[in-house]
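Appendix C. Worked example: Sensor histidine kinase
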Amino acid sequence: MKTGMRGLNDVQSDFANQLSGLSMIRKRLDYFYAGDFKFSVESAAGTGTNVRLSVPITEHE
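Step 2, the predicted output written as structure tokens:
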């Protein structure tokens, strides 16, 4: 089963809501980065799963 790229940034994403673990990760990223992130999952039977995460670089004082 190939799911293709699914963005998990959208709170209303059925895909994110069905996968509670990934949904929790998305919620935590949203909390820390206020929506300024990208989180996607690509999966295909027999080839594996790719997870992509992009967050802004920030400097801490």
